[in-house]
């Protein structure tokens, strides 16, 4: 005999979802960036977001790299909040891919002076490609995860059948 569940709303809280999504996006893709830096696929330090606030010598140390990793997690939370609150209803992987490319452009093209690093035309080609791919996959992770969570029709159909 099936036990009836009281009617309850299964809607996802966008704020909490975005914070959790950003945390895991930062952990996964920040870790991938750090690994790529260690393996010399990129010359961009994991602490590149902290360049305006700390000396480069500090960011080259292990503590500076860890601080950079944490800053990427915080940045990812902010960026996923922005995405979830504005673009969560877009379907498919393309909006997330475009979002990642947009942030790569903001940081590496427009923000290269702000972050006190060389622009992409002065970096080695393997660094530019590696950074572009990390941001592409990072944006895909944020965008597609949000799309699946907020546009999944199967979940709503299942709830109406149970009611």
Walk me through what this model shows:
The chain is an all-alpha fold and 163 residues long. Helix content is 67%, strand content 0%. The chain is built from six helices and no strands. It has helices at residues 14-38, 56-59, 62-87, 94-110, 125-151, 153-162. Helix 1 (14-38) runs antiparallel to helix 3 and helix 1 (14-38) runs antiparallel to helix 5 (125-151). The protein is elongated and about 60 Å long.
Structural class based on helices, strands and sheet pairing: mainly alpha
How many extended strands? 0
The largest β sheet comes out as: none
Into which percent range does the helicity of residues fall?
A: 55-70%
Q: Uncertain runs with pLDDT below 50, 5 residues or more?
A: 5-9
Radius of gyration: 19 Å
- On the 0 to 100 scale, the average pLDDT is 87
What pattern of helices and strands is seen along the backbone?
A: HHHHHH
Structural shape: elongated
β-strand percent reads: under 5%
Cα end-to-end separation: 16 Å
Count of runs of 4 or more consecutive helical residues: 6
């Amino acid at each position: 005999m099936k036990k009836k569940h009281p009617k309850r709303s299964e809607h996802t809280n966008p704020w909490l979802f975005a914070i959790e999504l950003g945390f895991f996006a930062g952990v996964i893709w920040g870790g991938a960036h750090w690994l790529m830096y260690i393996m010399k696929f990129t010359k961009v330090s994991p602490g590149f977001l902290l360049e305006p606030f700390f000396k480069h010598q500090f960011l080259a140390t292990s503590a500076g790299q860890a601080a950079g990793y944490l800053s990427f997690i915080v940045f990812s939370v902010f960026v996923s909040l922005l995405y979830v609150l504005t673009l969560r209803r877009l379907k498919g992987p393309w909006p997330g891919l475009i979002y990642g490319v947009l942030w790569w452009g903001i940081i590496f093209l427009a923000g290269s002076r702000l972050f006190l690093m060389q622009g992409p035309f002065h970096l080695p080609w393997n660094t530019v490609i590696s950074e572009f791919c990390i941001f592409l996959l990072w944006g895909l992770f944020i965008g597609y995860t949000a799309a699946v969570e907020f546009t999944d029709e199967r979940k709503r159909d299942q709830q109406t059948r149970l009611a």
